[in-house]
Structure formats: structure tokens, C-alpha cells
User: What shape does this take?
Amino acid sequence: MMAGSMPSPASLHVLVAGAGGIGCPATWGLAASGVGRITVLDPDVVELSNLPRQVWYRREDIGRSKAQVAAARLPAAGFVGGVHARLDDTNEEALRAGVDVAIDATDGAHAKDWLNQWAVRRGVPLVHAAGLRSEARLLRVPAGGRPCLACLFGRLTEETGSCADLGVWNGVVGTVGFLAAHAATSEPVQGAGGYAVLDFESGRAMTLGARAARACPVCS
Assistant: This one.
């Protein structure tokens, strides 16, 4: 294997933070790629409103842990584990089992900020995936950052509008979830890879510049 190349999917351990509209298709894509170990982490339980676009859940799952239901239902050849917990310092120990790459499929500023810091500190590549209204958004953060999510948006210390508040097209979260799975199993990013935006309403796809901030509070 060439230096810096990606291991085979069967040898990867991928953490998927968030088991909702983006996390469900992301785990599906990872399993279809033959990823050897998938850890799904989410603090929420299944609600009725989740069923239209969160493909692993059924009506009888309402009130059960999303992470654990998704892990049990995921048709994967490798190991799949579900962790019913929040992303915070009290649960960091559960994330130390050799994670090779993480997918940010969360829906909340604080969770995204914590995961970005954790990934930079641990030297784990991070795929940030988001959907808002008609837009799918993707950023591949190299191991150690430079750039990281905070280089682009600063510290995410305040909760602003989420897809739950502002709405998102069902097709958007499905698309960006599968794109995140593909990014997580592709060759690692070297340097600034750009912030990809796919707008379903206008039919435009673009990659915005993503450069490391000299005074980034996380990865500088």
C-alpha cells in the first residue's frame, strides 16, 4: 500500500455520529462498501416524525434508541455497534477504540463543535455532512485539521436553525448521507479539499474554497 493511501474498507472502523436523516443512509452506504466495523452513536429515541425519511425505523421502534435500532437492522457483513449517548467529554472513552474516520451526521451546533475538536485532537479524519432546505453540504477534514470545521465557521457555541427547525428535502439528506459514506471510504484528503454544496432547487453544484485559518481556535 502506498504511503497515505486509504486502507481497504474491510479494515476500517468508521464512527457515524447521528442516526437520523443523514446517518441512516450513511451507515447503509458504509455497509454496502464492505466497511469492517461501524459504530453508530446517537442520544435520541425514535419518534413518529422520523419515519418518513429515516429508513431504519418502523412504527414499532418508537421510543427505542435510534443508535441501537439502526445497529441491529443494518445489513452489514462486519461488526456494527450502537451507542446510546451524547457527544461530550463524559463519553470520549467509548470513542477510543481505534476509529479510523468519523462522519458528522449530527443536527446541532454543540455536537458538531465537539466532534470537530475531538477529531482534530485525536488525529482522526472527519467527514462533515449537513442538509438544509434544498442544499446538501459536505466537508472532508484531514487528520489534524488544516482546515477543520472551525476554520470555516469558528466555534459553534450557539444553537442556530437546524434542519428540524428550518426544514430539509428528504432527497437531500439521503444524497448527502451516501456522499458522506463514499468520502469516508475514499483516499484521505491532503490539505484544503473545499466545501461542497449541492443545491437541488437550483440544480447547481459548487465547491467553495476551504482554507486553514491562521488563528483557528481548534487546529492552528
